[in-house]
Amino acid sequence: MMNIIRTKINISSFTSHCLLAFVVRLILILYANFHDKYFNVPYTDVDYKVFTDAARYVIEQRSPFERHTYRYSPFLAWFLTPNIILHKDFGKILFSVIDILIAILIKNILARQKCNETLKDLCAFLWLYNPLTLVITTRGNADSLAVFLVTLTLDLLQRDKVVLAGLLHGISVHFRLYPLMFSLPMFLSLCKNNRFLPNKDQWKLMLSCAFSIVTLTITGYYLYGFKFLYESFLYHLVRKDARHNFSIYFYMLYLSANQSPDIIQKIVMFLPQLLLLLMSSYYYSEKSKLPFAMFIQAIIAVIYNPVITSQYFFWFLSLLPLCLPNIKMSFCRSVCLICSWILSQAVWLLTAYMLEFQSFNSFNFLWISGLLFFAVNVKILVDIIHHYNC
């Protein structure tokens, strides 16, 4: 009886935190309207305005890809049509609700691990009250939707609902290409005896994933033609973003912006990332280690990517709470790594501010601060791997 009462109290407490976290997000959404009106630098993400414009085109029975720089799934514009019909902040509220659902999924996944209730709650709170999560979501960034699909796919896989997991994985890849890197560790996690011949579950995962990707792609092509294929998929493969960002490659791309594409340059940029992704997939191929495999793959994909923005941190921060119970690191070391990460990011932001808003030629300093940020991220990744114990 006491256990039942204690469980009900814990559920009630977690529900209260979910409601509180949602209210905090609503307050930030209201603040965004004030900030956008009175400050030169807007709070709302420019992509949110792109989503809203694309939704307006959908309502007018036009292609969302008529909106310049709309390079997302057309179905995202469909989902955000209430931005036009109901209220411009509908999408932000929707993404905030999805944020709360992610926290619930995190708690449910951790419930299948052998860790106490307090630790499960703390891991979920890490997502609910993370300042980066709060800001990125309330700015109107849609990555919370991709994170939700990835987390739900992981949850379904761990519950042996392979076909549903495959279908959902295909949907997540359609909405955002980055979940594609999780395909190999997901596939290997279903391996039982023979690593070279796919078993029944692996076939189910592959076929259901292919079915959802093909179905959504054919539907998008039928509705919007080749423009859909190029803007949603092909553009991301051939893009050459020379604007300043956290990546160590940005300065090289900036200096070579007017040159023709160099295949050697692309190989140099992507080969280290590819090798590390393959190695981590194989080394952490057990089903119990799947969350950790996805977590470190997300970190590798972000820090070695030619383009890195703050929203990319969503990719691994959403998976970190699922791995924390198995990362046996001292509190002091954890604090030092977190402070190093924040400080190195602050140094980069300062130099970027000097370039963007003070018109100071800080490209060299920006590149050096990018190298610092890269080194700090690699150090954190190495320490996490060293202290992981499943």
UniProtKB/TrEMBL annotation:
Q: State its location(s).
A: Endoplasmic reticulum membrane
Top-level EC class, please? transferase
Looking at the record's lineage, which domain of life comes first?
Eukaryota
Biological pathway: Glycolipid biosynthesis; glycosylphosphatidylinositol-anchor biosynthesis
**Primary location group:** endoplasmic reticulum
Membrane topology is: Multi-pass membrane protein
Q: Which residues cross the membrane?
A: 12-34, 90-110, 122-142, 162-184, 205-224, 263-283, 290-306, 334-353, 365-385
GO terms in the biological process aspect are: GPI anchor biosynthetic process
Record's Gene Ontology CC terms?
Answer: endoplasmic reticulum membrane; glycosylphosphatidylinositol-mannosyltransferase I complex
| Molecular function GO terms recorded | alpha-1,4-mannosyltransferase activity; GPI mannosyltransferase activity
Report keywords, A-Z: Endoplasmic reticulum, Glycosyltransferase, GPI-anchor biosynthesis, Membrane, Transferase, Transmembrane, Transmembrane helix
EC number from the UniProt entry: 2.4.1.-
Q: Which family does it belong to?
A: Belongs to the PIGM family.
Q: Its biological function?
A: Catalytic subunit of the glycosylphosphatidylinositol-mannosyltransferase I complex which catalyzes the transfer of the first mannose, via an alpha-1,4 bond from a dolichol-phosphate-mannose (Dol-P-Man) to the glucosaminyl acyl phosphatidylinositol (GlcN-(acyl)PI) intermediate to generate alpha-D-Man-(1->4)-alpha-D-GlcN-(1->6)-(1-radyl,2-acyl-sn-glycero-3-phospho)-2-acyl-inositol and participates in the sixth step of the glycosylphosphatidylinositol-anchor biosynthesis.
Q: What name goes with this protein?
A: GPI alpha-1,4-mannosyltransferase I, catalytic subunit
Source organism: Lasius platythorax
